[in-house]
């Protein structure tokens, strides 16, 4: 499949992901926002690396979200817990051999740790962690689904091409 068609598949995945994320945003603003952000962050335009990229981004987001959530449960966010969270997330990425995900994981720690005024850190961290996990799952599902559908369409196109001639 040529690069333009693969890019079209990526764009369709983005449209589907944004639509699902926006629906989640309408249902629950705090969690839905993180679903939306995570879907777009995890989707990848390159078919060859898409699944590997998705898994690395999922690992990064989950490492960051869980690290931020756990530290928030231990102590409300301050410079020390954020710094510790960044160190822990980077160390976990190194230990799990997902160095390409380190930056995303450390950013996720900080984003999970920030709480807007009027909400507890626990509520915000839990909502963001749930949103990140859900968004990553949606993006991975879209990627796997589109990669499963592409060969089916390719076989049908080859079948019709062999029966009726190539019209390209």
Count of DSSP E strands?
0
Please provide the ordered H/E string of secondary-structure elements.
HHHHHH
Structural category is mainly alpha
Percent strand: under 5%
Q: If helices are DSSP runs of H or I spanning 4 or more residues, what is the number of helices?
A: 6
Radius of gyration using CA atoms only: 19 Å
C-alpha end-to-end distance: 13 Å
Binned, the helix content reads over 70%
Count of the domains: 1
Q: What is the averaged pLDDT score?
A: 81
Shape: elongated
Q: Poorly predicted ranges (pLDDT <50, ≥5 residues)? A: none
Pfam family, one: FUSC_2
Membrane topology: Multi-pass membrane protein
GO cellular component, one term: membrane
Keywords: Membrane, Transmembrane, Transmembrane helix
Give a description of the structure.
It is found in: Membrane. It is a multi-pass membrane protein. InterPro entries: Memb_transporter_dom. The protein is mostly helical. It has one domain (3-164). The protein has six helices and no strands. It starts with a helix and ends with a helix. The mean pLDDT is 81.
Topology:
Elements: H1 3-27, H2 29-42, H3 47-74, H4 79-95, H5 102-113, H6 121-164
Short description:
Pfam families: FUSC_2 (PF13515). One of its GO terms (cellular component) is membrane. This protein has 168 residues and is mostly helical.
Features:
168 residues; mainly alpha
